Amino acid sequence: MTIQEFKSACSTIEQEYKAKIGQAADLAAVEELRVAALGRKGALTELLKGLKDFSIEEKKEAGPLGNALKAALTAAFDEKTEFFAAKEINDELNKVNLDLTLPGYPVAKGHRHPLSVAQDRMTDILSRLGFEWAEGPWVEDEKHNFDLLNIPLHHPARDAQDTFFVDGKMPLVLRTHTSNVQSRYMEKHKPPLRIMAPGRVFRNDSLDATHSPVFHQIEGLYVDKHVSLADLKSDLTAFMKGLFGNKAEIRFRPSFFPFTEPSVEVDVKCVFCQGKGCNVCKGNGWIEMLGAGVVHPNVLRNCGIDPEVYSGYAFGMGVERLAMMMLNIKDIRTFYENDLRVLKQF
Ligand code: PHE
């Protein structure tokens, strides 16, 4: 092959393939042509193999020519391939008749559970009253759930009918109230202290409209010099007004808890009938909301706090019960069934 023949072969290949690329009907045709020109046995590949027979001078002329042609053809193939790839997407889009000006589909947003909403409102108010967040374990030893809280060994609360026991060497229970946070906190911190402890508690009850084996409480504990029942009353009044509005009223009824003395049951005047009596308060005009009292000296002493110097109040309220009243929910099971039609209302 002479250099002249090489040059003319180059221009033949260039013309032939550029024309064919121009006419290629689809992606497959382009690929077929690419192999025919640039593949291992392709026309240009075969032609370039002849370069080895040229003299050094001829190679200097022919080599760059061949390489330039290879680059030009590769570029032409790539361009055509891209064209068809884009065309394929456009054809697909044209088929589905897409209107880009239409508004999008709404994305279903997550939603807070009504109990979380209620609990947040309660802890929000308490924190404004100066209570700090505290927590304790769900699986608790008898010492913190009962002993330190002055609940004697033979108290009915310690019976398996009321308490879930956890198997193991040490007697462990699922905490029956958030009062375990009282003993745990006072062991570690000395007064003045003012805490709220929201969380899950467990009792061996069966599920009905007003009971659940798992429910939530918020514990409150305030210990300092000269804390009295009067402080409890004013703070809880402020809390209930924060929750139910300025008309909220509370009353104390005498009660008994081993860890408080005196102990009280706290009622809130029914927010639905303003105390006149309705089906929510079962005609009473008042609804029982929480247990509370002045911290028993034994509890302070058990936790290393001198009851001659310090006194305190404590309360424990049921989150579900308050939430039911806030949200006008009649059945506690509503909270746990996770029926979206219900949950979405809050
Ligand atoms: N722990 C008591 C209960 O679960 C409530 C309570 C807490 C009462 C603190 C008095 C003081 O019923």
TrEMBL record:
One of its GO terms (cellular component) is cytoplasm. Mg(2+) binds at residue 261. Tetramer of two alpha and two beta subunits. Its main location: cytoplasm. Binds 2 magnesium ions per tetramer. Its cofactor is Mg(2+). GO terms for biological process: phenylalanyl-tRNA aminoacylation. GO terms for molecular function: ATP binding; magnesium ion binding; phenylalanine-tRNA ligase activity; tRNA binding. PROSITE patterns: AA_TRNA_LIGASE_II. This is Phenylalanine--tRNA ligase alpha subunit. Residues 124-345 form the Aminoacyl-transfer RNA synthetases class-II family profile domain. The gene is pheS. It is found in: Cytoplasm. Its EC number is 6.1.1.20. Belongs to the class-II aminoacyl-tRNA synthetase family. Phe-tRNA synthetase alpha subunit type 1 subfamily. CDD domains: PheRS_alpha_core. Keywords: Aminoacyl-tRNA synthetase, ATP-binding, Cytoplasm, Ligase, Magnesium, Metal-binding, Nucleotide-binding, Protein biosynthesis. It comes from Candidatus Avelusimicrobium gallicola. InterPro entries: aa-tRNA-synth_II, aa-tRNA-synth_II/BPL/LPL, Phe-tRNA-synth_IIc_asu, Phe-tRNA_ligase_II_N, Phe_tRNA_ligase_alpha1_bac, Phenylalanyl-tRNA_Synthase, tRNA-bd_arm. It is an enzyme of class 6 (ligase). It catalyses: tRNA(Phe) + L-phenylalanine + ATP = L-phenylalanyl-tRNA(Phe) + AMP + diphosphate + H(+).
